Amino acid sequence: MDTSEFQRARSPEAKRLRETAILDAARELGREQGIRNVTLTDIAAAVAMHKSALLRYFETREEIFLRLTAQGWAEWSDSLSARLRAASDPGPAPASVAQAFAATLASRGMFCDLLAQAPLNLERNVSLDAVRTFKLATLAARQPIVAALRERLPALSEQEHGDLIATAVALAGAMWQIANPGPEVAALYRSDPRLAHAVVDLEPRLARILTATAGGMSGRPGDVRA
Q1: pLDDT tier at 219 (50, 70, 90 boundaries)?
Q2: To bridge 14 with a disulfide, which of 9, 43, 93, 129 should be the other Cys (CB 3.0-4.6 Å)?
Q3: SS3 90
């Protein structure tokens, strides 16, 4: 893409719009290619900027994707907490809660990808201020989920609510990577019946594990459903 048309943003509003354009471009590239395959040069080209100019807005590619991870947390929190409060499932609460977690995470593939990349890579090549901002954003995003869990799983302690959220996002990040191998590896799994165990359907597996986890925390083994 021609970068000759780029003009440096001068006003705060222009800077905000430029940052939004960069984030939007990175989001689209991440969805298409996977987070780890997107370079700073790719993002700069997508917004018709030189890479050196882009660095005036974000210190590294990792900061861009860390910002997107924080946005993903906020959006997922809104969706999950609303679903938990609206649930009318007559079944056991742990199973219903687990299904809400699994469904809302499995439908957000890029967010799951970011969840895996954040502790492995994204938090390791940014300033301490960027890490602090990110951690405070995720803390804020957890609060509505915890409030909804108090209503659905009142037998759990505050710490257990936090543990359930941490377990869900950690598993979703890791399992999404397993469930989405490269095309050649995916073809290998499909071609060899002995490798059927390597084919992962994220949502039902995540729901089963989280049901067992939430049921165990609640002290009601009978709530666990396969």
Answers
A1: confident
A2: 9
A3: coil
